[in-house]
Amino acid sequence: MKKIKVAAASLNQLPMDWHGNTSRIKLAFDEARNEQVAILALPELCLSGYGCEDMFLSPAVAQTAMDFLFELLPETHGLFTAVGLPVFVNNTVYNAVAVMNDGELLGFVAKQNLAGDGVHYEPRWFKAWPP
C-alpha cells in the first residue's frame, strides 16, 4: 500500500498583505515538498487574510485574491492543496477555497456553515453556499 503524507500549515497572514501572504503560502508549499507532503491544507482565507472585515464586500478584494491565486498555480507542482480566498459569484461574496493540484486549478468549494457567534460575524460579509 502506498502511503500519502497529509499536512496542514499554520500561517501568519495579514489582511490584504497580498505579496506577504502569497510569499508565506509559497514558503509553505516549499516546506511541504521538502517534507514529501502530497496533500497540504492551508488556513481559511489565507490569501486575503481573515480580518478584511467590510473590505470583503468589495469586488476588488476578490479580484485581487483571484489574481494572486493564479500567480500561485505554478507553485503547486507536486502538491494537492486548498487555498482560502473570497470569491464573488453573481454579485455575492463567498468564503471559499480553491482546490489545486500540480499546477492546475480544479475548482472552488464555498463554505456552507458560517461562524456567526462570539468574535465571528461571517454572515455580515459572506453568504453561505446552499447545501
User: The biggest beta sheet, please?
Assistant: 5 strands, mixed
The ordered string of helix (H) and strand (E) elements is EHEHEEEH
Order of strands, main sheet, comes to 1-2-3-4-5
Number of strands: 5
Please, how many helices? 3
User: Portion of residues in helices?
Assistant: 25-40%
Give the strand content. Answer: 25-35%
Structural class: alpha/beta
The radius of gyration computed from the alpha-carbon positions, rounded to a whole number of angstroms, is 15 Å
Overall outline: globular
Separation of the first and last Cα atoms = 35 Å
Mean pLDDT: 95
- Poorly predicted runs: none
Description of the structure:
The protein has a five-stranded mixed β-sheet. The mean pLDDT is 95. The protein is α/β, with parallel strands linked by helices. The longest helix has 17 residues, at 18-34. It has three helices and five strands; from the N terminus they run βαβαβββα. A hairpin with a 2-residue loop joins strand 3 and strand 4.
